[in-house]
Records
---
Amino acid sequence: MLANPPDGPEAPQSSAPRSRGGWGAADGPLAIRKPYALFLGDVHDARMAKTASGIHFWRPDDCIAQVRLPGCRADLGLPDVSAVEAAGLGAQTLVIGLAPPGGGVPDTWIPELVAALAAGLDIASGMHARVADRAAVGAAMRARGTRVLDVRRAPADLPVATGRKRTGKRLLTVGTDCGVGKMFAALALERELLRRGCRADFRATGQTGILIAGDGICIDAVVADFAAGAAEVLSPDNSPDHWDVIEGQGSLLHPSYAGVTLSLLHGSQPDHLVVCHDASREYMVGVDGYRTPTLEECIEANLRAGRLVNRGINVVGLCVNTSSMPEPEARRYLDAAARRLGLPACDPVRTGVAAIVDSLDV
Amino acid sequence: MLANPPDGPEAPQSSAPRSRGGWGAADGPLAIRKPYALFLGDVHDARMAKTASGIHFWRPDDCIAQVRLPGCRADLGLPDVSAVEAAGLGAQTLVIGLAPPGGGVPDTWIPELVAALAAGLDIASGMHARVADRAAVGAAMRARGTRVLDVRRAPADLPVATGRKRTGKRLLTVGTDCGVGKMFAALALERELLRRGCRADFRATGQTGILIAGDGICIDAVVADFAAGAAEVLSPDNSPDHWDVIEGQGSLLHPSYAGVTLSLLHGSQPDHLVVCHDASREYMVGVDGYRTPTLEECIEANLRAGRLVNRGINVVGLCVNTSSMPEPEARRYLDAAARRLGLPACDPVRTGVAAIVDSLDV
């Protein structure tokens, strides 16, 4: 969904301090320093810069420049600078939000990455390949004392979950499948809460979300025994009027990932769920022959499991990706779902999520 | 329960080849070579040798000697030998099945461990501390080319679960809480199946089970994204008359570990469940104020979740730890549970599990 984001209001920035330092990643503290320069490399197709465009869409004030190499076809409309110039402008981190073909780090990138580290920038990467494993990159990092942060790696020393009730309000996005807009919905809800003057924080649980937020825990990379504990750490005690809007992962009804989803549900102990769905998704992704569950099945499974840690859990809205439908059909789909389930039904891209926030006690 | 095991028939050995080699641990192949010499160290209390006594109880034919240091108060009744003598008797692995106070590797053990590795024995350890991190141990291992296998570490390169239906029969033990006898029940069921001439394999998912079986995957040490995939690898396609009896972990209704349990349930895609319970357990372990679920709640949660990957899943029996009760009360408890739920109800230690196997289509 991030490839073609809607025009939205400029995002108000989050109310809580971003540097929590409550846990340490293997490479050092997890908090990614802002502002960012976004590295677009030499990707030949703008769609490969989907993560970078998502960061820019959701955190425009955190992005002060883009760093492009010759041949780059992606363009976020930010000032074009070198990594060294970005450091001069005050950037703290060069963010690699790219998925080049093959998943490796192209040789053509190395000189600019080395220059960035030497100029005092950290590098944050959501790539599969470990950027710091490239010898010149590792050497530059050690020479200057800068960091290469791999947001796919989970922090060490996470605790086992306690199930203890925490203070503050929590909303978790859940879904009928993977890739149905749980991150987008959570960010849209955070933005709408902040617009209304509420105190709210998006809590990131996947690599793109972490790059957007500047911190978080890649929940599916945590050792299984500590996955629910990671979700507890991610969303600590807070003041009674504060909202944590937690990015969901996977689906309780997906045979590959349901354990991750359940750990996140239990560790988050949400008061409210928003259920995400893709209206065109007949079968779940990555597995053969598993039909996408209905919204009703998804709601029932999540409420049943979530009650273990929060008796008062409820569903407050539906976020449906209707991008496969023309406008009138999408409206009919949303209206029918809303009537059937007695819940506000939005498409975050098409309609925004104000109707869901209207139903919250904010 | 292993601290005081009942006298049982000598265990028939498993029917399937133990060396599968389908995945590799970080330290090399996971398969632990048998037969074992059991290292009892210098523990002052026989209860610290609980894992070793479990290995001896369940796999007596795999244990040819015990290696004790001066001051040791544990005794399994095996021939007392040095590590070097154990190698001469044909032992392949020195197994450390101990939990000494503090969890570290005492200095007093090092000379014997070094001698074992130098004599050609592998070492297999279920301790929290990493034995190979002791410099003299690591050096001896590298000098002779022997291995120190840490059964708490998960193999690398596990796949994401596919949800694909596999051939062969699968039975999983599940429970109302952690530590209610799921491993003991699975081993008792394997033993009873083998006694009746069935083809059966205990599939180990925790460190003690892995030392008993000689292989397996410590499921709670797997990165969350791959936990269900690990369970699929653990229990591959098999012939239609073959039973995998899979060791359960945690509980679907435990707020710390339910995600691990769900991954194991989905990856195992069991045809049959045996539900384990401790009759004296009012609150779940490790968390405050969470009541142990009833057998009915546990059954409902497991059947509901298990149907996603196996529509025909059913519960075939109850294994209840009644060690807190005198005999007449235990019998009344089991009879009442059997009547209420319409299922055979056993205490594997007190009654054995024949009544459950009677109900299977073997």
---
Amino acid sequence: MNRHVINPADKAKLTAELRAMGRKAREAARVLGRMPAGQKAQALRSAARAVRVAEAAILEANALDCAEAAAEGQNAAFLDRLLLNAQRIEAIAASIEDIAALPDPVGAVTEEWMRPNGLRIARVRTPLGVIGVIFESRPNVTADAGALCLKAGNAVILRTGSGALRSAIAIHAAMVAGLKAEGVPEAAIQLVQVGDREAVGQMLTGLDGAIDVIVPRGGKSLVARVQAEARVPVFAHLDGNNHVYVHAAADLAMAKDVLLNSKLRRTGVCGSAETLLVDGACAATHLAPLVKALLDAGCAVRGDDAVQAVDPRVTPASEADWGTEFLDAIIAAKVVDGLEDAVRHIEQHGSHHTDAIITADAAAAAQFLAEVDSAIVLHNASTQFADGGEFGFGAEIGIATGRMHARGPVGVEQLTSFKYRVVGEGTVRP
Amino acid sequence: MNRHVINPADKAKLTAELRAMGRKAREAARVLGRMPAGQKAQALRSAARAVRVAEAAILEANALDCAEAAAEGQNAAFLDRLLLNAQRIEAIAASIEDIAALPDPVGAVTEEWMRPNGLRIARVRTPLGVIGVIFESRPNVTADAGALCLKAGNAVILRTGSGALRSAIAIHAAMVAGLKAEGVPEAAIQLVQVGDREAVGQMLTGLDGAIDVIVPRGGKSLVARVQAEARVPVFAHLDGNNHVYVHAAADLAMAKDVLLNSKLRRTGVCGSAETLLVDGACAATHLAPLVKALLDAGCAVRGDDAVQAVDPRVTPASEADWGTEFLDAIIAAKVVDGLEDAVRHIEQHGSHHTDAIITADAAAAAQFLAEVDSAIVLHNASTQFADGGEFGFGAEIGIATGRMHARGPVGVEQLTSFKYRVVGEGTVRP
């Protein structure tokens, strides 16, 4: 079956269906925006229970997805992300309960002040409205993204990778049943029930004004499509081409610990380090031990001339390597000429995601943290902390690398907007 | 001269020029993002002095703009907004100095917390990058918008209405000379030096990635064009179709004061009230006095049947009147059936700008403030407080009515983004 071609009649039908989903989402958003915090939390707990109850149906659907993916020759990583079992379904339910337990962001006052004329002004969190989430073939994201958006008072339209569609439909059906039992509108969390990519294009147009923001999660092809086609705001999650810069004043043991953790704790996450920059001023003492530690830990090192000189196992780095998110046990490595050169390299090749400096020099750290234009900048800490949970945000829907609205881990607070509440005593403006 | 048609050769030349402006803006933004607060403030004071020094040249340019506008038959309001004199130039310079004196937002820590593993995480304000401001024929906006963007560490590309282009060029030249004297890059504030509208369309595409956000200021035709064509994020400033809702528990004297101020203090500002909603439960006592007060103050009232019944001077409201931003001494008025009906009317006809409730009932006020989805919601206060200065933000570049990033008065803080700064002690993730 080719899921990516659609005939005109089917396209018209899909358009009508998606627009109807958009209208229903807008109506649901109005209800959710006013829903008491307790009701939302209770409904999410009910959804978690419903997911547990539906375990057999979810596993059955997932088995079909997995069989199809295997038949299509998908790789092991794809199959592992797709596979559900009892333990993973329990993890999905527990994650919904964790989101239910987060503080409700809607109505929270983030700033409050009094004006000389007696007006009290408060900045209050409100929902964003309707969120479109377009994500890869990972069944758990159906639950996480749906629950996070709902917790923030938003309606959501989910579109999963077609490889996980049956699993997503089963999880979604369970969640909606659980939510409905607590009075949440059925359209609070909607799932696009067809696999073809035409739906992505239509969501990116905003469904006639029904979608306020798109959250894309996926590989380079989705990101490129979103950048070309999106007509609504996007919380883009780009590459994590992250750097560890070992400054002249770095403690070698600390640099080694942080570097190995940044690169190798998990290589497939967006917070993993992809490039090592070692300052020329400490290269004589630090470069060889750091490179050997990486190689000995099983990491391939692609280096410039100076890095190649310290170990024969180092292979030459190509120009493209500086811009590559390997997501594997591979690192590009280079000697830089001081802090400004490091910042310049990151500016030229980085993706504004997560970058770290290792140094004992507070002034150098402050300069790096100020000048590197990334969502997350770290001093003496692993890039693998780029994670909403590690930030204390609870679950996250991704790491935003743009500069508008949300940046860094997108948790429940980043899925809100705000309004100004002004209270007077019959106050008029002179 | 028809400024709105452009031949292909000129279009290609304009495209090349605008893209070059975009690249220069991006370079300037890098420098501005790292510029010390003191240098930015000093440079803005220098720009203010330069505007004062250039008074004669600015007045000369403005005289040409005014003569052309008069010859074109522009109306009195247009001519008044366009006209400069010594006093208005002094006000422009003083406004730049006020912006210079604001607290510098870049680097400000808006939240800071410690994680159990010892990581210290701070959310720190950063510049947005490059801002495109498209505005009407008001010379003072050249200075205000330029200074506000620069204060927040952003480069800006300004595009003024063609009617004010000569005045804007003169003000801009003076500002840039003043800024340059303090080491600010020439491209920190750039002005599109041609009047044709093709430049607007190109700015809305983002100039090949050079513009991060567009701030449009202008009438319905600009807003419509921005909505149709923008490929970059927009801080939209839509209509201010604002409501005053007189609740059943409103004090009549207070309601009268706030209503008259909301409607008539200045009718041409975006915060002026355009619709009066009176609760049916107090209509018997409140409706007639409120309507008569408006009429006696010289305000035309267009009402539903109930409103027409209280005074023969009331004319019938058309359906379109509920959605109209009159910006004049005209108000639409209607009796509503309780708070929920008022909220529903505002949701249906409002523009998410500024809406007020007058009531002595705290619970009713809380419900209105929570449920009305507008950038600014007021209790017992005039809608004319919808203004960055009245909020204590200093100057503003407009009132944003969207829900993404900026909402309400867009002052210097709203022109920033943020990053997370994470400090450890060699901290690694388990």
---
Amino acid sequence: MSLLSPKEIVEKMIDQDAFSQWLGIRILSVSKGGCSIEMTVREEMVNGFRVAHGGITYSLADSALAFASNSHGQHALSIETAISHTSPVLPGDQLVAIAKELQSGQRLARYEVTVQRNYKTVALFKGTVFKNDTPWT
Amino acid sequence: MSLLSPKEIVEKMIDQDAFSQWLGIRILSVSKGGCSIEMTVREEMVNGFRVAHGGITYSLADSALAFASNSHGQHALSIETAISHTSPVLPGDQLVAIAKELQSGQRLARYEVTVQRNYKTVALFKGTVFKNDTPWT
Amino acid sequence: MSLLSPKEIVEKMIDQDAFSQWLGIRILSVSKGGCSIEMTVREEMVNGFRVAHGGITYSLADSALAFASNSHGQHALSIETAISHTSPVLPGDQLVAIAKELQSGQRLARYEVTVQRNYKTVALFKGTVFKNDTPWT
Amino acid sequence: MSLLSPKEIVEKMIDQDAFSQWLGIRILSVSKGGCSIEMTVREEMVNGFRVAHGGITYSLADSALAFASNSHGQHALSIETAISHTSPVLPGDQLVAIAKELQSGQRLARYEVTVQRNYKTVALFKGTVFKNDTPWT
């Protein structure tokens, strides 16, 4: 098991995570198996419909999955993720992603991540991870 | 129906798609309901494990879905997408995403996108879109 | 809109639903956009591993999706569903499926269904439906 | 590794699989990582819309996933599955499910299953399995 706290692990992860930094992701809170993170959508993140590219919301949710699932101290890798975009996101919008552990076994764990703008859901994300034996140090 | 060809629609889309441009996406080919696009992974696209962030591969596949599903001339919006990352992607890797229409009805259509590096699959993506009545002009 | 109440719609649906009857599904509660239903797993429902076939838990959850999404009075059809089986289910187990509406727009709505045994989750299900203009009468 | 051939493993599985027998599933062909199976939809398999319950098509596809993924000789369990029902299925319809291995690693493997009626797709299914070390004997 890891000697690092959930918060120390996530800080270590985001320090080396160039793309989460480009997205402007900030950590709001971390617990064992959960986290809340936020970012602000910029003009360079839109697609051909002038709304946020689906990959932006996905990336935010995927980072939340990575932080939540690695917070236990063991390396966890995404196996399968799915996202439904339920409301268009615009430049200037501030998004909050809240990751929650639904189930956790020895090798596999499932998470849901809700992405919100002003407390209203804009995307629903579900992810399954595989845990190997490498500890966070 | 649209007076634009599939290629003209996709060129129009990518012209206004700031995030696909940031990713460095290039169009290889476009047909009605399908496309091949490519990009090269850069250092600023990695996550805390020093491999490409899951959001990068997702974004490439999601752009391929958007181009393929809008190529018919009618606006199409993503309802639901899922991705499995099957092999780690590294900075310098050149990725090709190939979108193929699996089924197309009046309102709904399904696509699969295979993301490859040197003709070997690194991610499997599936997407469902909703078609509204707005034509591409 | 339908003149029938959510409960009347679901009773009408299950009356004509031969497979839900074969499964032994019983309605526990119905509300606009939600429902709880239950069933007991029988010997004839197991697979080659002597545990409940994945299709049994899926079918229970899919019925819950159908009841919850049609309860508003408008016909709703499944577009896309996904399930994670998180714990093996055995003959004799009593399963409860709880459907909850996550989001509902004019044409599309998303639901999650949790399948439980003794208040512990055995499967996580997510579904998206398409609503057409046919009312329940 | 197993001393049994893919065909012997699948025959062993279906012999003990009471629900696949109830469905009337017949094996058409088996190979390492793939299979084709068929069944005929009966009146007792319909839902409240008088079409085949979504759980019927799912169950057929899920059996195909189980047979294909266990055919290598190692026990494989479903982690995550998703299905899109693309065309209504009626009593009397003969369905064929074709399972194909998309990717296979040490612990995880991905499959797609296409369900067809008269060579036309009625459902698209994707599944991920986890392989443990128990051999088929």
